[in-house]
Amino acid sequence: MRLLPYDDSVNLLALDTSTEACSVALQRADGEVFHQFEVAPRQHNRLLPQMLDTVMRDAGIARSELDYCAVTNGPGAFTGIRIAAAQAQGIGVALAIPLVPLSTLAVLAQTRFDQAAGECVLVALDARMNEIYWAVYRRDEAGLAVACGPEQLTADEAVELPPRVDCGAGHGWLEKLRAAADFDVDFALLPDARSMPGLARRQVEAAAVVAAEQIEMNYLRNKVAEKPASA
Predict the structure, then answer these.
(1) Which H or E run includes 175?
(2) Is the pLDDT of residue 2 over 90?
(3) In 103-180, which ranges are E strands?
């Protein structure tokens, strides 16, 4: 696995299929970002390779020129998480480049910060079975999402809104949680790969990257196996 400093010569690919949305982003070495996003439940297997080919073509670079591949590793839809992980794993093995695992909830928080005002967001995704995945993030001086506590899987009525929270995002804002909010909540917002490069750079600078064979899933449900099938 080759590990490069994250500087102006780096090409970073970002993949997300952890929710109903499927998205790919490529930050080229010159800083320009090429992006594809579509809300398409149960179509990620078909869409992800197409989106990947499109951003590579639009950016005008070959896959061999990629230096890092960022991927959301959960929490989220079990099958969806594995689709992006398998694609990232295949790229990482083929090119001997590191993978940058990012929390789905962190990417959702960053998507919110990139698109709207707010300094502290509670993000929540519907985990089914009357439970939600949720966490609180603040915006740091660089505009990046920083966790204010652990990611959790609970019933929505078990969530106590911290007083510092001033906005919300995600379809996990179920009825009881919605009733407690007195601020703006974007209930339809989903994670977007376009918001991943900044978070990925922070991870690279902290050496929080892994070899493709070592990627693990963050399901938050312990009964589910943690490693994806090899690509």
Answers:
(1) helix 175-179
(2) no
(3) 120-128, 131-139, 145-147, 152-154, 167-169
Contacts of 5 (CB under 8 A, 6+ apart): none
Best CATH choice for the domain 12-103+191-214 from the list 3.30.420.40, 3.40.50.880, 1.10.730.10, 3.30.559.10: 3.30.420.40
Q: Show the tokens assigned to 77.
A: 């839809």
Q: In this predicted structure, what is the pLDDT of residue 225?
A: 41
Q: What are phi and psi of 150, to 5 degrees?
A: -75, 155
Q: How confident is the model at residue 220 (pLDDT cuts 50, 70, 90)?
A: confident
Contacts of 74 (CB under 8 A, 6+ apart): 18, 81, 103, 104, 217, 218, 219, 220
**Same-fold call for 12-103+191-214 versus 104-186:** yes
Gyration radius (Cα) of the chain, Å: 17
104-186 placed in CATH 3.30.420.40: yes
Q: Does 228 score more than 70 pLDDT?
A: no
Tokens 């967001």 found at:
121
Domain ranges for the chain, please list them: 12-103+191-214, 104-186
Could you read off the pLDDT of 64-121 as tens digits, one per residue?
999 999 999 999 999 999 999 999 999 999 999 999 999 999 999 999 999 999 999 9
Give the integer Cα–Cα distance in Å for 7 and 205: 10
